[in-house]
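HUMAN: I'm a chemist; might I ask for a sequence paired with its structure tokens?

ASSISTANT:
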Amino acid sequence: MTDITEDKHFIDELQNTTVLQTNILSSIQEGMIVYDRNLKCLHWNQTMETITGLEQKEVIGKHLLEVVPQFVEHGIDTMIKGSIDGQSMSSEEIRFQHSKNKTKGYIWGRFFPMRNTESEIIGGVAVVTDISERKLFEYEIHESEKILRNVIDTMDDILLITDLRGKVLQVNRAFLHVLGYSRSEVLGQEFPYSWLFEDEMGRFVTWITNLRQQNWLHDFDMTWKAKDGRYIPMSLSTTLLRNSMGEAVAILNIARDITERVRLAKDLENRIKELDDFTYVVSHDLKEPLISVEGFSKILQSDYQDTIGSEGKEFLDLIAGATTRMKGLIDDLLLLSRVGRPIETFKPVSIKKVVDEVKAEMEFTIRQRSVCLNVPEYLPRVFGNKTHLKIVFRNLIGNAIKFNDKSTPIIEIGFQSAENNYYLFFVKDNGIGIDKEFHEKIFIIFQRLHPREQYEGTGAGLAIVKKIIETHKGTIWVESHVGEGSIFFFTLPRETPHG
């Protein structure tokens, strides 16, 4: 009698190994198919059931290509047979339909020969990956990119994307249309670009350098050059593009053709000049008859005093007062027209010297009113017209003294650095203040907030100041509350302006 205990132990171990392998194959997240040389299905895991809709009992023990005809339709049969011949093969992405619910998805297959311990081919193994979600994600990305491209290409503004070193990665149709380049001429270009003028390149480098610190810059006016040599004024806005980690990966430039805006601004400038010229001529011509009226009034007052009587003298006094005020208005009109076309060229000006000279000229008024005028030891140099800048400070300091009800008027002058190569100056006082309603009105010529009897003047001073600041390409505004004093802010270009 033969002892078969050892053989039974081997058979049990073999069965346990097979069960273990089956459990492993069933638990793999990818689809697994095992088949013999006759293409009979030996294993069909749960993932394959999910992908195809075919249960194990429908496939196991049957010819693989007969129960899954889609394998033949999509050429997978060739790869299955190839694995039996010893080849390892991979399929393309395959559109596959679920057998039960008829939904369609995408799969990708890899096929390998299966060998025994003697390296003989006894069948094949297929690993099938469901890539439907990835394909859907890719499709959504593609559609999003398509929509984005359509939006970009239908923009009226020019769009230019570069990498961080300045190499052009993308442009839109507006760029090609306005500048006249083809896409192939632009993509891949590196700085210096063919559409930048040589004298603009330094400004552009400074612009991009500032971008790395500020992340977003806007309203940078410069001139670009079209392929045919045309000059095109542009207003540029630039943004750093960042990835999901917050790392800068590209630079987005959006440029707007401002040719029409520049033309309108030039037209407005010409019209303002014409108006200034007209104001100058009319004001100058009006002075002559006023001088005559004033002169004859004085003759009547001195030579015919006994004849005209007290009532006549009162009328002559009224005429004299009116002509004096009229002369003041005309002088202010003449000054306003002159500051629009400065008689001196712009050059570096020391604001410290300007303020010191104005302070010396106003010394009597400052002493008379016990004014505390605080001026820092250092004030910067700017690029401008010294004569007109003296008018600015004389007017602002004078107003701070005039419109002040304190026994000791306190006036402070200061500055700080501002954007775009400018300085921001201020003149601060502890005077009567200005209601918010009138913060803009005070800069309109001949606009008075107080009766002439209370505060003398023509009401043209701040209009003249505003015109001077604007001639220097600056801006002016006021911050004030009634009873709390006022701060007048204004910007002036630095000693050596760019551009």
DSSP finds 16 helices and 18 strands in the chain. The first strand starts at residue 31 and ends at 36.
